[in-house]
User: What shape does this take?
Amino acid sequence: MQLKDQVVSLDLSKRLKELGYKQEGLWWWQVCKPSTKEWQVSTIKTGIVAPTCAELGITLPEYYKTIRKDGMWGCYDDNGDGYVETISKTEVNSRASMLIYLLENKLMEL
Assistant: This one.
């Protein structure tokens, strides 16, 4: 598995930052070629934090679960308060999408 599949995508990381996600973590998205605006994941703490699946697992309420089905990942509410599911090719992006949904809809605070 590549590192880019173990951290939140750049676009979702940008949205999490806009929503107030703490800019602390092991991995960071940073511009590696300013002329092309190409980004890469690094441990240098500049740019935008790139949360891992584990970091998001700690941030989400404990009753949010992830499952893999038909090559895709889903994150869903296992609490019984209603059903919302986010689906992505990677578990980390599915979790990030759920966190974004919860924050945008004011269903949780950071």
Remarks:
- Residues 12 and 96 are 7 Å apart (CA to CA).
- The chain is about 25% helix and 25% strand.
